[in-house]
C-alpha cells in the first residue's frame, strides 16, 4: 500500500540534523487525544510528529468545515506566525484523529530558524503553498450548482491530500462524517445523503466504519470534469486530477 499524495510533507526534508535538534530543543511536547480540538493563534507553530489532524476554518456563519489534512512531518500555524500584526494573525483550528503528538515552538523561534536555514524556508513556503491550495480548491466547490458535482470534486480533492491506494480503490484514511462533507460542500445533510446513496448504488464508492473507499475514482473525475468551467479559479488555474485519475 502506498500513500497517495502529491508531495512529501516533511518540514525537515533536506535540512541538517542540527536544524531539527535546534527546533526540538526549544519545542514544547503536546499530546492530543482523538477528536480533541487543536488550535494555534499564530503565537506558536506546530509540527505534527505522530498521528493525523483535520484542519478547519471558521466561517462567518459559525461553521468550521474541514479544509485540509495534516500528516506526520506537516507544520501548521506557520501562516499566522508569518503575519506581522497580532490582530491580523489567523487562528488555526483542528481536530485530532486518534492520539497525536505535536511539537510546538514560539513564533520567534520558528522565524529565526527559517532565517538561518534556507532549505527550511523553502520547505515552509512549499507546505504553506500547498495548504493554501487545499483551501482554495475546497472553497471553489461552493461555486458549483449541482450537489453531485460538489461531492465528486470534494472527494477527489480529499483523496489527493490524504488518499491511500488499496486493492479495491483509493481509501480516504481519515474518519469523516457526513456532516463534515455537508460543511465542505455546502449541501444540506439530507440532500447529501441521497447523493452518497446514488454514488454507492452506481458502484463508485463504499462507506464503512466512517471510512470512505473510492472504488471508481475515474467515474468521479469524469463527473467533476463536466464542471471544469465552473471550477476555474480567479487566477486562471483550474482544478485537475493527477494520474491515475486524469480524464482526457
Automatic annotation (TrEMBL):
The keyword Transferase does not apply. GO terms for molecular function: DNA binding; DNA-binding transcription factor activity. One of its GO terms (cellular component) is cytosol. Residues 145-218 form the HTH crp-type domain. Keywords: DNA-binding, Transcription, Transcription regulation. PROSITE patterns: CNMP_BINDING_3, HTH_CRP_2. It comes from the Bacteria. Transmembrane segments: none annotated. The keyword Transcription regulation applies. Residues 42-131 form the Cyclic nucleotide-binding domain. PANTHER family: CRP FAMILY TRANSCRIPTIONAL REGULATORY PROTEIN, REGULATORY PROTEIN YEIL. This is CRP-like cAMP-binding protein.
